[in-house]
Amino acid sequence: MEALLRAWRLAERLHLETLSAVAAECGADDAVLFEITRDLLELVDDATASFSDAHHEVERTRAGHDRIQRAEFTRAVLAGTISATELTLGIQRYGLRADADYRAFRARADAAPPTEFDRLLRPQGADYAFRTVIDGDYAGFTDRTIHIPGAALLAFGPPRPLAEAPRSFRLAGRALATAAALGHTGTCEFDSLGLLPGVAADPELGAELVRRYLAPLGSSGSAATLIDTVTAYLDTGMRIEATAQRLIVHPNTVRYRIGRFEELTGCDLRRAHTGAQVWWAIQYDRLVRPGATNFASAN
């Protein structure tokens, strides 16, 4: 574009020089020469402006086409509908690495307007992310975890090669559903949620474990105290002293509460599989109860 504009200016200069020389030879009046020169300059300006506008329109069209192609490539990678040859060509075209791992991500479309969401994906103006829309959600992949501020929630799957991106994307979806149920905001990684996605994904099992281990406690304030104590007990590796320090109570109080829980439920928390079931029941109960707290304290 710059070279073409220089050529326009050079041609304009040559025309003016030729016009001045011819006018001098013919003895043309200065007023006539001025009028012709002004018309020529206006013609050149109009032509330059028209060409510049057309050039920018072509660039915008090309950029829009490139964005569409990039989004389609991203969608095919995440959906697993891309062939090995197409994946190789896409990796080469977009400067990706065939031997690198990438994290798929997913976010609700109402998390932010498209332009604002794109800005959040480009910290300091760097463009690390490939983004598209799948089932109404923002979706994509990137070679790093991007931490976003505010109330938006962005969930990442585990790092995988691009050929395994569909698995990472599925797990990003589970992380998003779990984190949203927990009321999380910002960036969430599947790896950080532990077993919680499993708790959220199996309500039938969760409800049965709640019936088995929590229903016998009733719904009074003392029941909530027992549950909080058992949660801290499991989270500290079933250490009485550590549990007492966390709850700021006497160790004998912890012993009494644990004993009371085991008496009401008929279970032995020292058995590993029993402790796991009780933990699952507590996490599911706090997931489904509005206003529940400390959901992930023992994950």
What's a concise summary of this model?
This protein is an alpha+beta fold and 299 residues long.
Describe this structure in words.
The protein is of the alpha+beta class. 61% of the residues lie in helices and 10% in strands. The chain contains 11 helices and 6 strands. Strands 1, 2, 3, 4, 5 and 6 form a 6-stranded mixed β-sheet that branches. The longest helix is centred in the first third of the chain and has 50 residues, at 30-79. The chain is elongated. The two termini are 59 Å apart.
Sum up the structure in keywords.
299 residues; alpha+beta; Arc Repressor Mutant, subunit A; 3 domains; six-stranded mixed sheet; 6 strands; 61% helix
Q: How many separate helices?
A: 11
Rounded mean pLDDT score = 84
Structural class: alpha+beta
Q: Segments where pLDDT lies below 50 for 5+ residues? A: 292-299
Question: Main beta sheet: strand number and arrangement?
Answer: 6 strands, mixed
Measured between the Cα atoms of the first and last residue, the distance is 59 Å
Characterize the overall form: elongated
Q: Roughly what fraction of the amino acids lie in strands?
A: 5-15%
- Number of DSSP E strands: 6
Radius of gyration: 33 Å
Instruction: Give the count of structural domains.
Output: 3
Relative helix content? 55-70%
- The helix-strand sequence is HHHEHEEEEHEHHHHHH
